[in-house]
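Re-run requested by the PI after the first attempt was lost when the workstation crashed. Everything re-entered from the original request form. Ligand of interest: 2-acetamido-2-deoxy-beta-D-glucopyranose.
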Amino acid sequence: MRLLSALNLKTLSSLLAIVSLTNAAAEEDAIASPDSAVVKLTQETFSKYINENPLVLAEFFAPWCGHCKALGPNFAKAADILDSKNIQLAQIDCTEEQELCQEHGIRGYPTLKVFRGESDPSDYEGPRSADGIVDYMIKQSLPPVSLLEETSDIDDFISEASAAVIVETGSKQNETFYKLSALHRDEFSFVQTSNKDYTKKYGKDKFLVFLPDTKDPVIYKGDESYENLVDWLSVETKPLFGELDGSTYQSYMTSNLPLAYLFYNTPEEREEWKSTIEKIAKEQRGKINFVGLDASKYGRHAENLNMDQDFPLFVIHDISSNKKFGFPQDNSLSIKTLPKFIQNYSSGKLEPKVKSEEIPTKQETSVLKIVGKTHDQIVKDETKDVLVKYYAPWCGHCKRLAPIYEELADKFQSSSEAKDKVIIANVDATLNDVDVDISGYPTLILYPANDKSNPIVHQGGRDLESLASFIKESGSFKVDIDSLEADVIPVKESEETAASKETDITHDEL
Ligand SMILES: *[C@@H]1O[C@H](CO)[C@@H](O)[C@H](O)[C@H]1NC(C)=O
Ligand SMILES: *[C@@H]1O[C@H](CO)[C@@H](O)[C@H](O)[C@H]1NC(C)=O
């Protein structure tokens, strides 16, 4: 998954968190009470405990984190209920167990993982209420595949399911079927049967997908390759016109098909659009996924898609290229005009809406300011090693780095030789669309001359020396700035610029 999508996911999940926080209890503590069934794990005890217990939900947390505090009481309550079912809940305090948390790649708090033994834990993707945790973990403890033989049992199972049910009529591809079920056990249900009614009607040894509220299943017609089956499932398990929320976001984002959104104001409005969108979605099956999004809850997500919060709105997000194609927000969106828009999209006639600041007419410092519209052209300049700092105005590490980064740029600008070979640039990634993996701010990436398909992410220190040696070691020109004499007289900033910069800094810190 592209990390930019991950950022969007963060935004959506923080919107979701706001919704759930309003329901949170008053007395909250991230650390479960010693009286509860929650087990506290450390570097010393972790492996042994995880290997001795068949199913463990582990929470990696920090005592100061707000979402951890909200989760705390729910986690403890769920632990008490699940203890009798041989399902354990454990906590790891990452402020004390830094190494352990690092080993597990913990990047945010709380992170919840489901362990069945030590290798390959899966991410917990259920709700964070006590009941929600209990339901989710009980489902995790059941066999992923239900073996049903009575026609009425299968019929009932399918009609009661709230998400897709995948049926194998036979067991010829048993191993594949179990592998699929392990992959998707959180989202869908899996049934295996040799029931005669089903084999007669749909054939023997077939894979079928039943969607809620539809009569006939979709039957798999492809070959036996596991990858093709995974792709097929990713398409056919989605409703024609699905709903985007915290529980479905991940599966739409990882499907890699473009995602078309209708942001609607009310359920009635969604209903008005339904048959039109379903009709289009049927034609576009396997090419575009279609979802509704409740604008009264997640309206702010519009801005991630470069749209104004003016609803209803329609926008297609091509996830693999991170390009966004919005229906113009000039009141011309209607059930009649939508099909033509989709046609235009499919025939490649639409221009993506790129979020970008204006292209600067003059550069204020030695650091070259990049914007969305100029990013690709500048970083792909084959004649230059280009170092780019991707930052957010609110980020503290970025502010600390800023003066050092400017000093670095000054050094390169003051030598005519270095200046011709190296560009030191930055871009405010919150105001500009860039098709780059950004996992945190600041992210520093060097695009070496004559090797633009191999950008290198800076991992070292953020002091002047480390940055200079990064350019020397990773750049194609191996420019060693310390061995070059300054021979360009730096242009003095005008007093006006300096003054306005100072104001900016004060403003930032407010
Ligand atoms: C299918 O595979 C599962 C998991 O490996 C196993 O438990 C089950 O017995 C197998 N069923 C058949 C019919 O081979
Ligand atoms: C589709 O494209 C045509 C021709 O390029 C254009 O005239 C029309 O306005 C577009 N319609 C929509 C809804 O995008």
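Saved to the shared folder this time. Residues 171, 174, 178 surround 2-acetamido-2-deoxy-beta-D-glucopyranose (ligand 1) (CB under 6 Å).
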